[in-house]
Specification:
The complex is a heterodimer of chains A (about 280) and B (about 280).
Chain A: E1 10-17, E2 27-34, E3 39-43, H1 50-57, E4 63-70, E5 73-74, E6 82-85, H2 99-105, H3 108-111, H4 119-131, H5 147-160, E7 165-169, H6 177-192, E8 196-200, H7 204-210, E9 213-218, E10 220-225, H8 227-230, H9 233-240, E11 244-247, E12 250-253, E13 269-270
Parallel strand pairs in A: 3-8, 3-9, 6-7, 7-8
Antiparallel strand pairs in A: 1-2, 1-4, 4-5, 9-10, 11-12, 12-13
Chain B: H1 3-9, H2 15-40, H3 44-53, H4 55-63, H5 68-88, H6 94-113, H7 119-128, H8 136-155, H9 157-165, H10 167-172, H11 177-195, H12 204-218, H13 222-247, H14 251-269, H15 275-281
Classes of the chains: A alpha/beta (about 280), B mainly alpha (about 280).
Chain lengths: ~280, ~280
C-alpha cells in the first residue's frame, strides 16, 4: 500500500531536459512524486522522453530547469542509492567479462576501486545471481547468453548495489515470457523491501495490471496516478495521438515503427479494457 | 655449450643486442597490455593516428639535436589531447577528427624531415624502428615509462574496465568517464613513444592490436586477456629479433609478422572460437 505520508523517496520537481545546447527540450516541466517503495510504470509513445527521463534521474543528462530529490536531498548527494538497468543495446556484449564479473561490478560502490571484494560482496553477488536463476551460467561470458539471461544479469547487478531506487529501461523488450515473469516477481518482492522501482515499458496492459502507479509521458507529463486514474481515453489520445485507436472502450496502440529497431516490436498492444470504460 | 644454446645466446653477446632484447621485451609487453583496451574500445585507428602524430615532434627534436624520445613524448601527448578535445564537443565526429590530425601531423613531420640531408635513412628509422640503435638512456626511459603505464593500468583496473564496458553504469558510479578516456589516450600516446625505437610509428599499431586480438580469441576475461596478450607480445618481440638477426631482415617488421602468425594460429585453432574447430563441430 502506498503511504503518502512517508517522506517521498523520489521527487521530480519541474525538470526540463534537452540534449545539445539550443535543441528543443526532450522533456519539459515534469513534476511528480513517488512515495516509498512503490512500483511505477513509465509509458508513452516512441520518442516521448522515457529514456531521457531515466538518464536525467541517474544524473547523466544535466537539468535545464527543476530538480530531482531523493529522500529530500538532491541527486548526487548519496552514493550508490540509484541503480539503473540499461537497455540491452547500450551494452557491449563482446566484452570479455563473465556473469559474476558483471554482478560484482554492482559492489564497486561499496568495495571501492582498489580493495579486494570482501566475503560479503561475494556473498551478495552470489545471492543476486541465484535470485535471478543464473547459477548455471555464472562463469560464462555474457556474450554467450540468451537475451532474457542478459537482461537478468543486469538486473542482478542492480540488485547487488542494494539500491533504494531502481530504474529499468524497457526490461521487457525482446525477452522471453519466463524472464518477464521472473522480473515481475522480483519487482513485487522489492516493493515489500521498500525499494522504489521505475520501469519504462511499451506494454500498457502490463503497466495497468502489475504496477501501482503509472506515468504517461509525451515530452510533457500527460498523466500520473493509479492505472485506474490515468488510463482514460483522453490521456491515451493525448499521449499516443494518432497511434491510439479506440474500439468499443478498448485502446489499440500501434507501435510498429519502433525507434532504434528494438527487437520484439511486433504488432499492436491491446490496452486494458476495464480502465477505459467511460 | 650445445648447438641450440649457442644459437640462442650468440646474438646477445654484443651489448647493443642485449639492449635491443630488453627494449623489445618491454615494448612487447607494454604495447600488448595497453592494446587490450585499444582492441576492446575499437581505438585502432586512433592508435595509428597517434603514432603518426608524433612525427613532427621527432623531427623537431632531431633538428634541434635533442632526444628523439622526448620530442615524441611531447608531440604524442599534444596530439592525444588535441583529438580528445576536438571530438569531445561533438560537432566533429571522432574518426573525422582523427583523420584530420593524422594526415596533418604526418605531413608536418615529413615536411620537417625533408629539410634534413640524410632524409631517407632517418625517416625509415622513425617509420619502421631501429632497435639496434637503442641507447642506455632510451632503455631507462622505456623502463620508467613502462612501469608508470603498467602501474596506472593496474591501479585503475576497475575504473578502466567498467568505463570501457558500460560507460552509463560508470557514470552512475560517479566516475569521470571523460577524464578516464583522456587518461587512456595519454597512456596510448606514452606507449607509442616507448615503441618508437623498436617498431617505429608505421608498425606500432600492429603491436598494439594484434597481441590483444590474439588473446581475445583464447580467453574470456579481461585480466587473463591482458596477461596472455603480454605473453604473445613478448614472444613476438623476441622471436622477431632472432629472425632479424639470423635472416638479416628489419627487426620491427619481423616482430609484427611473428605476432600476425600467432594471431592466425589462434584464429584457426582457438579451443572455442577457432574457425577450424567450429568447422569440425558442424
Amino acid at each position: 500500500m502506498i503511504d503518502w505520508g512517508e517522506p517521498a523517496r523520489l521527487d521530480v520537481e519541474g525538470i526540463s531536459v534537452g540534449y545539445g545546447p539550443g535543441s528543443p527540450p526532450a522533456l519539459e516541466d515534469i513534476t511528480f512524486r513517488v512515495p516509498h517503495g512503490s512500483r511505477v510504470a513509465v509509458v508513452g509513445p516512441n520518442g516521448s522522453g522515457k529514456s531521457t527521463m531515466f538518464k536525467a534521474l541517474i544524473g547523466l543528462l544535466p537539468l535545464r530547469r527543476g530538480r530531482i530529490l531523493i529522500h529530500g536531498l538532491p541527486l548526487g548527494s548519496h552514493h550508490d542509492c540509484v541503480a539503473y538497468v540499461p537497455q540491452r543495446e547500450e551494452v557491449d556484449w563482446r566484452f570479455p567479462v563473465t556473469v559474476t564479473d558483471v554482478v560484482l561490478m554492482g559492489r564497486y560502490g561499496r568495495a571501492g576501486w582498489l580493495r579486494r571484494f570482501s566475503a560479503e560482496d561475494r556473498q551478495v553477488a552470489g545471492e543476486c545471481i541465484s535470485r535471478l536463476g543464473l547459477e548455471s551460467v555464472a562463469d560464462r561470458p555474457i556474450g554467450e547468453l540468451s537475451g532474457g539471461q542478459q537482461q537478468r544479469v543486469f538486473l542482478a547487478r542492480a540488485l547487488a548495489q542494494k539500491p533504494h531506487v531502481l530504474l529499468m529501461d524497457e526490461p521487457f523488450t525482446g525477452v522471453d515470457i519466463g524472464t518477464q515473469e521472473v522480473i515481475l516477481q522480483l519487482l513485487d518482492e522489492l516493493a515489500t523491501k521498500e525499494v522504489t522501482v521505475l520501469v519504462s515499458t511499451h506494454d500498457l496492459s502490463l503497466a495497468a495490471g502489475r504496477f501501482e502507479l503509472v506515468v504517461i509521458l509525451n515530452r510533457h507529463l500527460v498523466a500520473y496516478g493509479t492505472p485506474k486514474q490515468v488510463f482514460t481515453p483522453e490521456n491515451l489520445a493525448g499521449a499516443f495521438g494518432g497511434q491510439a485507436l479506440f474500439l468499443n472502450g478498448t485502446v489499440v496502440v500501434d507501435r510498429c515503427c519502433d525507434r532504434g529497431g528494438n527487437a520484439g516490436c511486433a504488432g499492436p498492444v491491446v490496452g486494458p479494457q476495464r480502465n477505459l470504460k467511460r | 655449450m650445445s648447438a641450440v644454446g649457442t644459437w640462442l645466446t650468440e646474438p646477445f653477446v654484443q651489448p647493443f643486442m642485449q639492449r635491443a632484447l630488453l627494449a623489445s621485451l618491454m615494448v612487447g609487453v607494454i604495447c600488448s597490455v595497453v592494446g587490450c583496451y585499444v582492441v576492446l574500445r575499437g581505438m585502432a585507428f586512433l592508435g595509428d593516428a597517434l603514432a603518426h602524430g608524433i612525427l613532427p615532434g621527432v623531427a623537431v627534436a632531431y633538428l634541434l639535436n635533442g632526444n628523439l624520445v622526448v620530442g615524441a613524448l611531447i608531440a604524442a601527448v599534444a596530439v592525444a589531447v588535441g583529438i580528445g578535445l576536438v571530438s569531445r564537443s561533438g560537432t566533429v565526429r571522432e574518426d573525422t577528427a582523427i583523420g584530420i590530425f593524422f594526415a596533418a601531423a604526418l605531413s608536418l613531420g615529413v615536411l620537417l624531415i625533408s629539410t634534413i640531408r640524410t632524409y631517407a635513412t632517418d625517416l625509415t628509422h622513425i617509420l619502421f624502428g631501429n632497435v639496434l640503435g637503442v641507447s642506455s638512456f632510451d632503455l631507462w626511459l622505456t623502463g620508467i615509462l613502462g612501469v608508470v603505464i603498467l602501474l596506472v593500468v593496474v591501479l585503475l583496473y576497475r575504473q578502466l574496465l567498467v568505463t570501457s564496458f558500460d560507460p552509463v553504469f560508470a557514470m552512475t558510479l560517479r566516475l569521470r568517464t571523460e577524464w578516464l578516456r583522456m587518461l587512456l589516450l595519454v597512456l596510448l600516446a606514452l606507449t607509442i613513444v616507448v615503441s618508437l625505437q623498436t617498431v617505429g610509428v608505421g608498425l606500432v599499431v600492429a603491436m598494439l592490436v594484434t597481441p590483444g586480438a590474439t588473446a581475445y580469441l583464447l580467453v574470456r576475461r579481461l585480466l587473463p586477456m591482458m596477461t596472455t596478450a603480454a605473453a604473445v607480445g613478448a614472444v613476438s618481440a623476441v622471436g622477431g629479433l632472432y629472425i632479424s638477426y639470423y635472416a638479416n631482415v628489419a627487426s620491427g617488421a619481423a616482430m609484427v609478422l611473428v605476432a600476425t602468425i600467432l594471431f592466425f594460429v589462434a584464429f584457426l585453432f582457438s579451443p572455442d572460437r577457432g574457425v577450424v574447430w567450429r568447422w569440425v563441430r558442424r
